[in-house]
Amino acid sequence: MAENRWETSENRKYFLWEVFGKYHRMKKILANPIEPRVTQSFETIVVQGGLKGSSVEKVVISKVDAETYVYLIDKAIEQLPDTEEKPYKRIIRYKYIEGYSARRISIMIDYSIDSYFKKLRDAQIELCEILDLWGIAI
Fold this sequence. Notes:
Layout: H1 9-31, E1 45-47, E2 50-52, H2 55-78, H3 88-98, H4 102-108, H5 113-133
Helix pairs in contact: 1-2, 1-5, 3-5, 4-5
């Protein structure tokens, strides 16, 4: 039987570091308002080599892309169990969204630090499998 690629700590850490790095960049894009200048329009201008859209159009497209990415990651997290035995959803949110320390998370979920790291590993594997299944690539 082939080994699950998410069993390797380096694979999980790199993948999730990239996923949540992009997640936080996309959240910043969503936080910035679209403020077109009065003189800007949504017209497309023909330039040498093709069409050139307005800067407002580019901002709108990047916001839609950001919104879609953040939505998919949030939905993937929602798929994780959140029980006493498997507090995966909370672990992922606390670690990757809120940025809490391992010690703080272990206290919040009422586990020893060693047990927390075992649960974190399981939560990471499950999230990586969901994101992989959904075709979320880095």
